[in-house]
Amino acid sequence: MLEIIVLGFLACAAAYVGLLWFAGRKDDVIHGDFVEPKS
Fold it and tell me: Which of 9, 16, 25, 27 is 20 to 30 A away from residue 34, measured at CA?
């Protein structure tokens, strides 16, 4: 049971990091006027 919880947590963490990385890359690529510049 504990293994399932740990694997689920790792999967969620990996997905979260992946989404953050993808969002960061998207901002770097688009350079849209609506995107706030990072200070």
Answer: 16
What would you report as the CA-atom Rg of the chain, rounded to the nearest whole angstrom?
A: 15
Question: Would you say 28 and 20 are in contact if contact means Cβ atoms under 8 Å apart?
Answer: no
Give every CB contact of residue 35 below 8 A, 6+ residues apart in sequence.
27
pLDDT at 21: 85
CA–CA separation, 30 and 28 (whole Å): 6
> What residues contact residue 38 under an 8 Å CB cut-off, 6+ apart?
27
Dump pLDDT digits (tens) for 9-21: 999 999 999 888 8
